[in-house]
From TrEMBL:
CDD domains: PBP2_LTTR_substrate. This is LysR substrate-binding domain-containing protein. SUPFAM superfamilies: Periplasmic binding protein-like II (SSF53850). One of its GO terms (biological process) is regulation of DNA-templated transcription. The lineage of its organism: Bacteria, Bacillati, Actinomycetota, Actinomycetes, Micrococcales. Residues 13-134 form the LysR substrate-binding domain. GO terms for cellular component: cytosol. It comes from Galactobacter caseinivorans.
Length: 154
């Protein structure tokens, strides 16, 4: 789809229920996170795999309170106070009911990417999605943006 796009890389944050004026209101280590009830993604979800690998590498065994099949389900479980979840910082933009802490030691990141089969011509829907991704990426990585320190071009 062109080489003029640096995919955004979002830091992972731990979120819990509760509104906060600051999008990210502190830091949490993996060891601290492991002591809290987790709202986890399905084991096939890439962020769950990365989080599980980080826990395993640190010799930690978190307690999973409930699993959600996709992002919206996980966030709704968290908003209802069932536990904490590790998610990309980008989800904080439209979720005022969540309070987040930056995940440190280790920090986890997630990269968004676009791909198109070699030789394929993008149709109108693909071009529209590409334009939206470029727009959102520019908004998230702009200097002074609310989450600029957590979402950067890769």
């Amino acid at each position: 789809m062109g080489s003029d796009f640096d995919p955004p890389q979002a830091r992972a944050v731990a979120v819990r229920a509760g509104a906060s004026r600051a999008a990210v209101s502190g830091r949490i280590t993996l060891a601290q996170l492991a002591r809290l009830p987790q709202v986890a993604f399905n084991r096939s979800y890439d962020l769950r795999q990365a989080t599980d690998a980080a826990f395993e590498a640190a010799g930690l065994r978190p307690t999973v309170a409930v699993e959600g099949a996709e992002m919206d389900a996980v966030l709704r479980f968290v908003e209802r106070g069932l536990g904490v979840a590790v998610v990309p910082a980008t989800i904080l933009l439209d979720r005022p009911g969540l309070q987040a802490a930056r995940l440190v030691r280790p920090a986890l990141t997630r990269t968004a990417a676009l791909s198109l089969r070699a030789g394929a011509t993008p149709d109108a829907a693909t071009r529209a999605m590409r334009a939206l991704v470029f727009q959102v990426s520019a908004r998230l990585t702009a200097p002074g943006a609310e989450l600029a320190e957590f979402v950067v071009p890769a």
